[in-house]
Amino acid sequence: MFPAATTASSGTPWRPALLFNNNGPFTLGGSEVSVPGIGNANAVTSNEPDGEDDIDRPSSLSVKKNQEEGIIVVHEVNCELYVKSRDPADQGAWKYKGTGQLIIKCKEGISTGTKESKPTIVIRNDVGKLLLDVLIYRGIMTIVLKNSVVTVFHTSDDGDSNEKVVARPFLMRTKTVEDRDKLVAAIQDYAPAS
């Protein structure tokens, strides 16, 4: 693509390495050219004293955790969420809903295992999209698989516009067996007894 060496009008040989070299400043025909934002990392290009050019910027584009007043988080784990397909063509296969942070939260100051504590499971993906938001109900059953937990939650039906509530099986897959065991214990501990 580029010839190995050519002669510019100044008589100096031109090589692509001189133009695209990250080790030093940009050179053109043997003379250095200063390009803003590129160049020597050790050189100070700011006219402001140290520390005054620090601007508060978000560390990433991901959603920050939102602490609600009067609510405490009692369990947290990353998981994949699946829902049992109700389409007869799928023959009951698990449909992938997404991966995200599962939290179990309760009202603060109210004893655990009561209906008044309103234990809730919320799963959000990395950008904040809500994957699941359900109450843990009295007598909730969990089925333990290899590194997954299967349970039935009452959610709005995806296809209906009248927001009809239906019972649907959900599978929450954790990374390790220990995470799965802690999740099952948290669901059982915070489920209302009365």
UniProtKB/TrEMBL annotation:
Translocase as UniProt keyword: no
Signal peptide start and end residues: none
The entry's keywords: mRNA transport, Nuclear pore complex, Nucleus, Protein transport, Translocation, Transport
UniProt-listed GO biological process terms: mRNA transport; protein transport
Places the protein is found: Nucleus, Nuclear pore complex
Region (Disordered), start-end ranges: 39-61
Coiled-coil parts of chain: none
Cellular component GO terms, alphabetical: nuclear pore
InterPro entries in the record: PH-like_dom_sf, RanBP1-like
Name by which UniProt lists this protein: Pleckstrin homology (PH) domain superfamily protein
Organism, as annotated: Striga hermonthica
Organism lineage string: Eukaryota, Viridiplantae, Streptophyta, Embryophyta, Tracheophyta
